[in-house]
User: Which sequence fits this backbone?
């Protein structure tokens, strides 16, 4: 790759943050769409580390992405160009002269690095952090398009993000498996899923997987109410229950004490662990915790997520071709549209507590632990 | 079930037309939602045959639907109350005095039959035909809510229908399986999928499953162009190709002759058979046909379809509770809304030929056989 | 069900112990095979509780099993007749006059209960405990056939048991999902699977799912060796590793101390928790624990398990028809044969440490933590 | 790759014949096992074409197989080194001086080609043809180990072959999907699966997928008996049936006439097409044909097949290390053993008509069309 900037037009792609099913599909569609326009495509290795930490990459910090490079990756989990948690370019950890670690803004280095590689435009795939970097790069004059990535589905600017459907589908599969066992063993099973700020995964998987109670950040729960739900089921002859808990679920005032008393149990399982312990105490029924955690982050994307990711990848290149910059592609069914990067991450999309999905759950007798 | 109409409020449910993954989930959510309101629920057997052909049902043409009846059915294909192609109530086949079969309007009998069972409201789940019946019943004063069902996704009133995601997911799974074999055997594989009037399944599965050409009703194809796509691939060293064909795909003027010459081949495989035969002739490469057909109609719904179906079922009962009638529930992401039944089926939703999904496919180098 | 014993011949079926995918398939094949011979079939509810605790079953402690009862259950997890951990009939927990709980031998009551229901033969599906009860019943003159059930695959009398393939398949699916995430996050993931006495699940899933180390009860591990394996991978540029741990894996003498020092961490995660903590300490790399536990016990059986379970169910009825009693059906590929119940559970089938599967793993560079 | 033969020891791998899930897993285990011994590994491209047709491979007819080359391929369908139907080395199609195509024995060229590449041993993965070539090479002094491949499971020398479990699992999945639709549409569905000489796939999938009749090559069928089975079901109120047909199933004398009369229908669907047509005529019920064909050949292997393929791949290298040659690795549960190549393919393994799996099917009321 010769450094002086000559045609053809060059697009760089970067994937940042945690794993999400569909990253490779975004890359594939972007690469094929760029090649289709006669452009060249390069992947920056491990987020922006390929540029910011060049000495770690003796074979080069960017990968030339060709038709062959992206063959067959649509259905593969992970990202072929790597991602990283090593450091946010605007707050990059650096050892100071005193040996302590300081944060340093390396954005200008990143801008210069992109220029040195002759990059004409950047497709930045990632979450909040990546969108923040993209917005800052755009303000510095880099032509950049963001592609949103969060399996939590908690981004306000887009109706869906890839990876979410895969996470919900696998969580539902797990609930299906646990149901017969809960019944056979006459147990209460508490299943903790991702969702620190929004309860989308817990809500969707809980309904589809026939959970009996669903605890989400948007609806503070009273552990007594949850226990009562289980007891009502037992009175009705059903000696088993499944409680789905989002990792960000929080008890309302009244129920804190029961849970908080469990000293020493706060380390591993988070809220799921506390809920499981409290329910066993309150109901007297053997209670087990299953933490799905990392199982929901990876794997082969569902068809829905494959298609969404491919559409996002192609739309990012199309946006560049249209002269766009500083925007994020978003799904606003049935169309893909553009959202200014500055607005894109300014608000979270939490579960509206009166949405029809919540109403569906309530009508089906599912408890949210608050009534 | 005593016939004189006394409280509690009684809801009947009917499923009409062909199989679609998610029917049982609609039923389950509707039943639980009705019970939650203190109502009773009854399923009419085999479409409306349970009422119109009572002597075929010695044990009764309606089934009392309880919490136990709908336990565990969310993930099951088919419909626990049966469906039927036996006869449209407004054009019911009847043997006349001359022994010939005539069509007879039995709508009044249906209205009376519902009244005789003390039914206060009807949830009619089905396709065009069922919505037409529902609209007619509403005009006769029956309180009726429609729930749309078409795995072809071709209904204009709603952004999605349950069953479609399942069909696309399975078709994509099949394409995944066929890809390595096409490559190993160096063959052209033509894969025919459902879609008589709209190419949604072919388009979505074709993109997600990495097809090389996709033929849909909305874009008339020139078989020569499809053959050229395959030949360009061969010139590039790829001695295999996958062509996805919607059953309603049609050749444009110029290519009719090549296909039409194949006398005697029109019986079984429809357009897929013709395309496969013509491609083998035009490219000289061994070509095989795989018809997915019925494989796409049934089976356990995906999580996406489960949730959509559950939301529709609960929304139908909620609509009754709100005093609605003559409407169809519909998805308008992120909400479920109501559409007048008369409008619901008046227009088809075909693939807009300039939608971003088509653009995505073109950018990825997929041919639609027209250029 | 009339109590005086009259023809036709009556078979009772009982399922005991924990959940295992395939129980319903055994029941279905047994019921259809019995009906095929003109016999009747009854399911005892919840292990033997339907007979020993009749007052808990106001509608009867046994269920008449018909063609309709078993329709469609082949693919369903759980057991339609229930299982129980309530009490082993030979050591049944009973409240004594002093209010304390004593164990009581209620085997004669069980024999009499079966006779009172007019049962001519019993098919007892379950693990060690159920086979012990079956053997004791046979000695008391009951005609009884055992069907082995253990997803751990640790029963010496049979080459395979149903449920094992399902457990291995799902554990492998989980490893597939975790692999891309481990790589993206540059983490060590410790995955604990079932296997208290035998490492079959860990071994098979670990190899099929490309784990880097597998710790099983049969090969005591040295945690230092496991850490060295991870460090060798890092030296080779692979900053992630997956370690599969059977719940019964044990450290060899030398490594106990490292693990045992972690006071207070022994509660939840068992050996997996200890291994994860020790590896983080030894390698300095962030380490996460995923406990699959109950996820492996339930769910829809794989095709392999369906077929094996159906063969077992039919074989049990065939054995009764041949006049057998006191035997367990077993798989000795390609045939199903009979094993005396007394011998059936006398020895465990652990992983032979020089079997070709272990050799395969070693040749592929997988560490067992002992060299 | 330098031609003069110097250490290290060099193993070549070849995959021949049709696609089968698990080929890549064999390759991966063989490569890792060879590297583990300090050997080098090379893949011959497209069967033996990489050596016999060198001018088609400007970049070389063999691929150096490294740890990186085989990363992540365990779960991938197809074969990374290609397979071919281009020509059997002992009967290679060659254009003669008269322009006609003759078969020529190019075995010596193959022996010399392997020597020229410095190959010390060959692992030949494939079906009958590949084993015949391997045996001939062994007789010429090449050190060669065969790895059997047939998804039909019809090889006598081994209890299982990889790919079979995947084919059966997918066929069963298809039957699951078709069942609810057959019921909803009140149809007879005929499902044709692979199995030219042996009915293993039809038998196993048919039982696991709850088919009502199964037609296999080993049991000549009377189409009248099949129709009677369908009619008995209708008399019992079940207006749908599923008939699984192996492509090699044959009518017995009495039923030939009914099927043979269907002139012009013999082209596409083979026996399935004839059976479907005859059943519609005999039963008067609408009958549809689904041909699974190529869908069963490819795709990601099941965990069972992954493990079997990995064991075979490692065993092949172990056999070389032990000084073996002229043998095929085989599964004789629970061990992998060696079978002389000359014996390996001499007999087919067909379904014994009195095996317990057939008895299971009969006891469950499944018809084989012969009684």
Assistant:
């Amino acid at each position: 790759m010769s450094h002086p900037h000559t045609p053809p037009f060059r697009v760089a792609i970067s994937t940042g943050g945690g794993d999400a099913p569909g990253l490779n599909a975004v890359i594939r569609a972007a690469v094929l769409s760029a090649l289709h326009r006669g452009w060249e495509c390069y992947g920056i290795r491990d987020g922006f580390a390929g540029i910011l930490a060049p000495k770690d990459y003796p074979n080069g910090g960017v990968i030339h992405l060709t038709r062959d490079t992206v063959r067959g990756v649509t259905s593969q989990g992970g990202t072929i160009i790597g991602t990283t948690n090593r450091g946010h370019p605007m707050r990059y950890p650096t050892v100071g002269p005193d040996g302590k670690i300081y944060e340093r803004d390396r954005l200008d280095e990143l801008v210069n690095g992109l220029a040195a590689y002759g990059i004409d435009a950047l497709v930045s795939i990632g979450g909040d952090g990546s969108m923040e970097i993209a917005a800052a790069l755009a303000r510095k004059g880099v032509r950049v398009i963001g592609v949103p990535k969060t399996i939590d589905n908690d981004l306000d600017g887009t109706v869906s993000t890839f990876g979410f459907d895969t996470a919900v589908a696998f969580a539902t599969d797990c609930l299906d498996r646990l149901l017969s066992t809960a019944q056979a063993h006459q147990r209460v099973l508490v299943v903790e899923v991702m969702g620190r700020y929004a309860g989308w995964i817990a809500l969707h998987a809980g309904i589809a997987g026939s959970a009996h109670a669903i605890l989400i950040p948007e609806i503070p729960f009273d552990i007594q109410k949850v226990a009562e739900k289980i007891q009502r089921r037992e009175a009705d002859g059903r000696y088993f229950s499944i409680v789905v808990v989002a990792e960000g679920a929080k008890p309302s005032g009244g129920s804190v004490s029961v849970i908080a008393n469990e000293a020493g149990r706060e380390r591993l399982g988070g809220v799921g662990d506390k809920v499981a312990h409290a329910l066993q105490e309150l109901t007297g029924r053997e209670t087990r915790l299953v933490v799905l955690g990392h199982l929901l982050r990876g794997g082969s994307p569902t068809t829905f997520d494959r298609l969404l990711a491919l559409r996002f990848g192609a739309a990012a290149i199309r946006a560049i071709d249209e002269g766009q910059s500083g925007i994020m592609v978003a799904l606003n069914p049935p169309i893909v549209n553009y959202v200014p990067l500055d607005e894109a991450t300014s608000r979270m999309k939490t579960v509206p507590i009166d949405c029809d999905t919540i109403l569906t759950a309530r009508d089906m007798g599912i408890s949210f632990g608050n009534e």
